[in-house]
Design goal:
Strand order of the largest sheet of chain A: 1-15-22-14-2-13-12-11
Distance between the termini of chain B: 11 Å
Strand content of chain B: under 5%
Shape of chain A: globular
Helix content of chain B: over 70%
Main location (chain C): membrane
Number of strands of chain B: 0
CATH superfamily of the largest domain in chain A: Dipeptide-binding Protein, Domain 3
Largest interface: B-C, 55 and 49 residues
Largest sheet of chain A: 8 strands, mixed
Number of strands of chain A: 24
Keywords (chain C): Cell membrane, Membrane, Transmembrane, Transmembrane helix, Transport
Radius of gyration of chain A: 23 Å
Number of domains of chain A: 3
Radius of gyration of chain B: 24 Å
GO cellular component, one term (chain C): plasma membrane
CATH class of the largest domain in chain A: Alpha Beta
Largest sheet of chain B: none
Structural class of chain B: mainly alpha
Organism (chain C): Streptomyces triticirhizae
Strand content of chain A: 15-25%
Membrane topology (chain C): Multi-pass membrane protein
Shape of chain B: globular
Number of helices of chain A: 16
CATH architecture of the largest domain in chain A: Roll
Oligomer: heterotrimer
Order of helices and strands of chain B: HHHHHHHHHHHH
CATH topology of the largest domain in chain A: Dipeptide-binding Protein, domain 3
């Protein structure tokens, strides 16, 4: 299979439904070296300034992406700072390296050796060394203000025991044997910041672009960093400049695009995307698995009826997933199978797709004596489509005889009172693209409060085995863990939605930057 | 009363008023459910992490102590740091407030003369055709909720015709004045609803003056038309109108939240809405306090203006 | 301060416009109040593809989730009106009660209370609503209380001023001298004379309340999905307006027509009621 064809699914409109594409092909891809933007017309054009709009924070925005969790924070950070590496299911290691040449792991899976490419420099010409890499991974883990995702490496690696062997070599011991440490470090969001940076606008950076102007809450202007050396492409980045604008509302981003104020609008709501799809002046692009975000409903096991697995199964069978994909996303989303992270190499796509079977759901509820049970599903507009999918799901539940009601909280409130959230009988949540087994450990296993009562040491053990071993043994344990989750889990994962962007024609090379949910522009061209 | 004591009394009254409002703002934000800890610590934080965050933010202490600390800081011009991003709230408000003041100032600059002209036109001939047309028109517009008006103007002047940008994107590193076209729609929306409020106020004040024996006497002397309106009705009507327009400025503050949200204009109203959504309590408190101070100050200015414009120069009340 | 002014149309009876407004009000009121009874389908059930054009079974087309727009319009007015009426009632009761008390008992610290009320009036209503509605998410009651409280200081001022005018006429002094108790004085001497002012003021507050409740729906405060609410419908369907404008236009037109009509009527009512008030208070 041609991996590029899958990743650069350029769509105008809704003709292509993103049903589960990838599957086993992900593991067999070829190398990523041949990628270059604008392959069709030969040599990529150099020059131009691209203006793009993203969801951003208000005037409280800073340049410190460790504490800022918006799309704009991530995109700006990836433009300013070089990545350790990105997930690339088609590459031999499952990752494509950025500043790294390679990551080696010892036989006991107890230490990872990160080797940097030679001659890397920051924008001020100073050398980029292994110390900068260590600081970039370690400092956010020690700052209580940083986002949970930046604390994750500290749960796997023992930074206190880390050794900088020389300017190009960093050895990271693990806390327990881990086989997928490469996937963990090269997720695309671990970037190299200069050691002891205070994130002020003057600090030198390592990425494809450097900062020229920063206006908190409104955006920033970047120009090409001439010191940056691209891993594969000698003359990239091609763009002279990049203007990233903050617009929190999907409609506003689309309006800025149609009004000619920006060239590229990120993360459009399904309806906005549909409206823009009818406009020939713009090209719509939707990410495909694994770069999709899961919309979940979690059944609280503290809530009596959900202790009965028949009730849980009935709730899974009641969801009309196809209708959700059609009505909420106009066909542009992936049907979920009550498992995490489709499209990632560790996802168990051997497990059969759960059908929509309201009759069996009704029967199971009757058998469990849970006919007419009352339940309230709580949701909020935390990501486009979340409230809409919940609204349809409640109608599905009513149709199988559950006395279900919907409670929608205002934006930002769903997870705000966390103890209250963990007591909800049926709660909505969503995921960002993360490999299945690490995601399980981060948000599901080990009696995590986010799992609403899921407490299965045996499954936790299977996941730990899958991550701590390799080959056949790892695959078997991973499958068994996900099978248990599918059969007895308390999560309904009906839909995985893509990140939809729209842009003017002539922009190419964005998808080649990988980490597609937050587009990068180091290979982008404007014509 | 002479000017000195009058001004002194007004300015002195400003301080306890603002203090009372600051208690109100602080108390109201304490109502937010849960606490800010979850917003800061993130959904998957452990109990220990949450406790650490609670301590770092000082939320483990009692509200009275926290209020006193906050108010003390506010007196020194320090409103604390926002939860998201950790920027100084004072600095952040200083970034955004000028944009909103510009918007409100331009809206007033359009609305004020228009209100006075229309109000005088209607009030000086209360009950006649011109009055009926103006009064009805104004009532029609005043009946429209601001968000409907904004959506309507947006559709007419931007989405449909492409004459103006739909989104108020300020050029990076510049001010809104560098791209005046982005100001048109927000100012227009605010001004139209401002005119609707202002005209009614000026009209009732001038109608009352127009019916007074003083103006009746002028009319008997043969003074009519615009001269009567400008020389005899206007001076009497300006003082009550100025006081009322002070209230109108207060309404502009509320309107700014809606208008800035609809057009994505980077002002303090949009910031407030986002701060509430992100539960950034220091930011909500800071913005609310500043908004209250601005409104109090305009009411004060309006009082002073009303007194200065009052031809009788009597007692201010 | 707001002063009454002569009727712009002279002393004639209600004009054509007034009748038109009354008709519009009645129409919108009947849609809002009888709508839930008239609607044949469910406002939350999916009946077709999203944002479909009008067709059989859904005369106004479908909304962003494929629900029947007509059913949602018929179900969605009730809450806006009930909230606005509730908030107005709250503001009027608090304002009239406080205003009467302050107007009659001005000597005993009344000035200080008025100062406090003046300060409260400065608090921007939308700010109060944002704070309270966020404090009690997914609750229409919070919107009602916020809108009501925001209007109270203004009501209170108007009623107090009217009460003081009445108190100054001597009725009250005479009645007190006769030995009537305060409740009797209020019922027989004060209330009849300020009732017009209270009513006219309630009309003005009601317009503001309709605005604020609709804005609350638009900003996503108050009861959330899947409840139908005209303000909310506008917000939900605005992005889809190019595909099917009806789910935005119909509730927006109903809201706007109602607000405009009530505004005109309240103005006429205020003028109508204000005239006798002026003569009686001898201004």
């Amino acid at each position: 299979m041609e991996p590029l064809a899958r990743r650069t699914l350029l769509r105008s409109g809704l003709l292509v439904a993103a049903t589960a594409v990838a599957g086993p092909a992900l593991l067999t891809g070829c190398g990523s070296g041949e990628e270059s933007p604008a392959r069709s017309d030969g040599k990529p054009r150099r020059g131009g300034t691209l203006r793009a709009a993203f969801t951003g924070a208000g005037a409280g925005e800073t340049l410190n992406h460790f504490v800022g969790g918006t799309a704009l924070d991530m995109v700006r950070a990836r433009a300013l700072h070089a990545t350790l590496g990105d997930l690339d299911p088609s590459a031999p290691d499952g990752v494509r390296y950025g500043v790294l040449e390679t990551i080696e792991v010892n036989g006991e899976l107890s230490a990872y050796t990160l080797r940097l490419r030679r001659g890397l420099t920051f924008s001020d010409g100073s050398a980029l060394t292994a110390r900068d890499v260590l600081w970039s991974l370690r400092s956010p883990a020690e700052d209580p203000a940083s986002l949970p995702v930046y604390k994750n490496p500290a749960a796997t690696f023992d930074f206190a025991g880390a050794r900088v062997e020389n300017d190009h070599t960093l050895v990271l011991p693990t806390l327990a044997p881990v086989a997928d440490g490469r996937l963990l470090l090269c997720q695309g969001n671990y970037l190299v910041v200069k050691e002891n940076s205070d994130f002020s606008p003057e600090v030198a950076t390592s990425g494809p672009f450097r900062l020229e102007e920063f206006v908190p809450g409104e955006g920033c202007a970047l120009v090409r960093n001439e010191e940056f050396t691209h891993p594969e492409l000698s003359d990239a980045p091609y763009l002279d400049g990049l203007e990233l604008r903050s617009l929190p509302d999907s409609e506003a981003r689309a309006a800025a695009l149609t009004g000619g104020q920006v060239d590229f609008a990120h993360d459009l709501s399904p309806v906005t995307a549909r409206t823009l799809g009818e406009d020939e002046r713009f090209t719509l692009t939707s990410t495909s698995p694994p770069y999709v975000s899961g919309l979940f409903f979690r059944m609280n096991l503290a809530h009596e009826p959900f202790r009965d697995n028949r009730v849980r199964t009935a709730f899974k069978l009641a969801a009309d997933r196809e209708a959700m994909v059609e009505s909420v996303f106009f066909g542009d989303a992936t049907v979920g199978n009550d498992l995490l992270s489709p499209g990632f190499p560790d996802y168990a796509d051997e497990i059969e797709q759960r059908p929509f079977d309201p009759d069996r759901a009704r029967r199971l509820l009757r058998e469990a004596g849970a006919e007419g049970m009352r339940v309230t599903l709580t949701t909020g507009p935390e990501t486009p489509g979340m409230v809409e999918v919940a609204t349809l799901y409640v109608e599905n539940l009513v149709a199988v005889g559950v006395d279900a009601t919907l409670e929608e909280l205002p934006a930002g409130q769903l997870f705000a009172d966390y103890p209250a959230y963990t007591r909800l009988p049926l709660a909505a949540s969503f995921s960002v693209p993360t490999p299945a087994l690490p995601l399980y450990q981060m948000s599901y296993g080990g009696q995590n409060p986010a799992a609403l009562g899921w407490d299965r040491p045996d499954v936790d053990e299977l996941v730990a085995t899958a991550r701590g071993t390799s080959g056949e043994e790892s695959a078997r344990a991973g499958l068994a863990a996900q099978r248990a989750l599918w059969e007895e889990g308390n999560t309904i994962a009906p839909v995985f939605k893509p990140f939809t962007t729209a842009h003017v024609p002539g922009i190419s090379g964005v998808a080649e930057d990988l980490f597609e949910q937050f587009p990068g522009f180091s290979r982008a061209t404007l014509s | 009363m002479t000017w000195g004591p009058f001004l002194l009394r007004r300015v002195v009254a400003f301080v306890p008023s603002l203090a009372a409002l600051s208690v109100l703002v602080f108390g109201a934000t304490e109502l937010l459910p849960g606490d800010a800890v979850s917003a800061v610590a993130g959904p998957s934080a452990t109990e220990a992490e949450r406790a650490a965050v609670r301590e770092r933010l000082g939320l483990d202490r009692d509200p009275v102590t926290r209020y006193l600390e906050w108010a003390g800081g506010a007196l020194r011009g320090d409103l604390g740091t926002g939860y998201t991003g950790g920027r100084s709230v004072t600095e952040l408000i200083a970034d955004r407030l000028p944009n909103s003041l510009l918007l409100a100032g331009l809206a007033l600059a359009v609305a004020l003369p228009a209100s006075v002209a229309l109000g005088l036109l209607a009030g000086a001939r209360a009950g006649r055709r011109a009055d009926r047309a103006v009064s009805t028109g104004v009532l029609l517009v005043a009946g429209l909720p601001e968000f409907v008006l904004a959506a309507l103007l947006l559709w007419l002047l931007a989405a449909r015709t492409g004459l103006l940008p739909q989104v108020s994107l300020v050029p990076l590193g510049g001010t809104p004045l560098d791209a005046p076209e982005i100001l048109v729609l927000p100012v227009l929306t605010l001004a139209v609803s401002g005119v609707a409020v202002g005209t009614r106020l000026v009209r009732s004040a001038s109608a009352e003056v127009a019916a007074s024996p003083w103006v009746e006497a002028a009319r008997l002397r043969g003074i009519t038309g615009p001269r009567l309106a400008a020389r005899h009705v206007l001076p009497g009507a300006l003082a009550p109108a100025a006081q009322a327009l002070g209230l109108m400025t207060g309404a502009l503050v509320g309107g700014a939240v809606v208008v800035e949200t609809v057009f994505g204009y980077p002002g303090i109203g949009l910031e407030l809405q986002q701060a509430v959504a992100h539960r950034d309590i220091p930011l909500v408190q800071g913005i609310a306090l500043v908004l209250c101070a601005v409104t109090l100050a305009t009411v004060l200015l309006a009082d002073v203006a009303a007194r200065a414009l009052d031809p009788r120069r009597g007692s201010p009340r | 301060m707001r002063r009454p002014s002569p009727d712009p149309r002279g002393s004639g009876g209600p004009g054509v416009l007034t009748w038109c407004c009354a008709a519009v009000c009645l129409l919108v009121l009947s849609v809002a109040l009888l709508g839930p009874l008239l609607a044949s389908g469910s406002p939350t059930e999916q009946v077709g593809p999203p944002l479909a054009a009008p067709g059989a079974g859904h005369p106004l087309g479908t909304d962003v989730l494929g629900r029947d727009v007509a059913a949602r319009v018929l179900h969605g007015g009730w809450v806006v009106l009930v909230l606005a009426v509730g908030a107005t009632t709250l503001a009027t009761l608090l304002g009239a009660g406080g205003g009467l008390w302050l107007g009659l008992a001005a000597e005993h610290g009344g000035e200080w209370v008025m100062r406090a009320v003046d300060v409260l009036a400065v608090f921007p209503p939308l700010l109060l609503m944002l704070l309270l509605a966020t404090g009690a998410p997914d609750s229409d009651a919070a919107v009602l209380v916020a809108v009501g409280l925001a209007a109270t200081p203004f009501s209170l001022r108007v009623v107090r001023a009217a009460t003081r005018r009445v108190a100054a006429t001597g009725y009250v002094v005479t009645a007190r001298a006769r030995g009537d108790g305060w409740p009797a004085v209020v019922r027989h001497d004060v209330l009849p004379n300020v009732a017009g002012t209270v009513l006219a003021d309630a009309g003005i507050r009601f317009v503001a309340a309709v605005h604020l409740t609709a804005t609350a729906g638009f900003l996503g405060l108050g009861r959330g999905a899947p409840s139908a609410n005209w303000g909310r419908m506008i917000r939900e369907n605005l992005p889809g307006a190019p595909l099917n404008p009806l789910p935005v236009l119909v509730p927006a037109a109903l809201l706007a027509a109602f607000a405009v009509a009530v505004n005109l009527l309240a103005d006429r009512l205020a003028e109508h009621l204000a005239d006798p008030d002026i003569t009686r208070s001898g201004a």
